[in-house]
């Protein structure tokens, strides 16, 4: 077993490299992904090793990137598009929703769009406007798109390869504040034996309350669980991993045991993923709940200036406060 300690960003780079090696139809395209290696260096070294016909520097035109990728996908390629920052995806939103998500359905299954749209998302890095947003609900709401997000290096390495191998279009959200966090990665694990792409996972077992999170908030919730354990309260933390389709089987099982549930995400609360998750858990686990399902989210405002972003982002204290409130009913 070839196990290495990698950052989440390096794990993505290694997964992309392996996909390029295994399938000559995989191409990577985006702004500065080639010579520069991407603004976060996720594609570092790939153009040097695979050439500028497979790792392509594009003009600064997100709609052009996605439009070109649609044509490539129809012709049998597997394009991997990088959107530099979350807030830059909106010029391409029309094509993602109107073409990428609907081509397979409109063609009665005759045309597939096997493409991946990589989007670094979320805050916590002190960035300027339009560089720290969480647009996942837009895409999860759109039928025809698969939406996933990784939270640790092992998942980053495996999930990016699984997404590229999928015959469906996948929006692949990368928690940019976690790019530099390290973890063990099994580089030899076959994809067929890996955790399924669209499955949630229990990342910390517990008995007293269930905490559901994804992407950058998984680490925050694990830290909250560690703090709660010092006071004798055991929180079960579940990483949703896939936002569309949602896999809530492990969440239902957990809530039926704990009777309490808190859902955490960075995006604003209004019509966020947490609302859908809370509704489904209430429907499925109503008679097991000891309190309402609570949400800890960003606020219903535009993302703030960097100097006050820590006031906006859910943190350990807000998660623990919500857990405390579930015990107050």
Account of the 3D structure:
The chain has 329 residues and is of the alpha/beta class. The longest helix is centred in the first third of the chain and has 15 residues. The protein is globular. The mean pLDDT is 97.
What spatial form do the alpha-carbon principal axes imply? globular
List the uncertain runs.
none
Q: How widely separated are the two ends?
A: 49 Å
Order of the strands making up the biggest sheet? 3-2-4-5-7-6-12
The major sheet is characterized as: 7 strands, mixed
The counted number of beta strands is 14
* Helix content range: 25-40%
- The Cα radius of gyration reads 20 Å
Number of helices: 12
Structural class: alpha/beta
- Beta-strand residue fraction: 15-25%
Order of SSEs, N→C? EHEHEHEHHEHEHEEEEHEEHEHEHH
Mean pLDDT, to the nearest integer, reads: 97
Topology record:
Layout: E1 3-7, H1 8-22, E2 26-30, H2 46-50, E3 55-57, H3 62-74, E4 78-82, H4 93-100, H5 103-106, E5 116-121, H6 136-140, E6 146-149, H7 153-165, E7 170-175, E8 182-186, E9 201-204, E10 209-213, H8 217-230, E11 235-239, E12 242-244, H9 249-258, E13 261-268, H10 273-285, E14 294-298, H11 309-312, H12 316-326
Parallel strand pairs: 2-3, 2-4, 4-5, 5-7, 6-7, 10-11, 10-13, 13-14
Antiparallel strand pairs: 1-8, 6-12, 9-11
Helix pairs in contact: 1-7, 3-4, 8-12
